[in-house]
Recover the amino acids of this structure.
């Protein structure tokens, strides 16, 4: 036996994404969360390498470089996010960012 659902506006609501700003309000928090998780993964991986390096100074230096680049990348992402917000406020553009 096959059951079918009739699709109409009463049981299947139309899409809530009508404009680009409404789409960005959904996508940008997901991207920022993914960036934060990626940063934490890189940070934990580098910290583990430092802890397991022992007497190897080259491995410790590489891991410290990795931490430095991870922090720099996070600062770059956050500053670009804030720069877009500031430019939007100055120009009076309706902000597409959710925060």
């Amino acid at each position: 036996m096959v059951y079918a659902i009739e699709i109409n506006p009463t049981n299947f609501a139309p899409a809530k994404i009508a404009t680009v700003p409404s789409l960005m309000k959904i996508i940008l928090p997901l991207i920022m969360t993914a960036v934060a998780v990626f940063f934490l993964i890189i940070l934990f991986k580098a910290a583990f390498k430092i802890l397991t390096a022992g007497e190897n100074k080259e491995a410790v230096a590489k891991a410290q470089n990795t931490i430095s680049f991870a922090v720099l990348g996070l600062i770059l992402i956050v500053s670009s996010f804030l720069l877009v917000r500031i430019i939007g406020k100055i120009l009076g553009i309706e902000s597409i960012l959710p925060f």
Remarks:
- The helical segments are 20-52, 57-91.
- Residues 57-91 form the longest helix (35 residues).
- Residues 37-99 form one domain.
- Residues 58 and 64 are 10 Å apart (CA to CA).
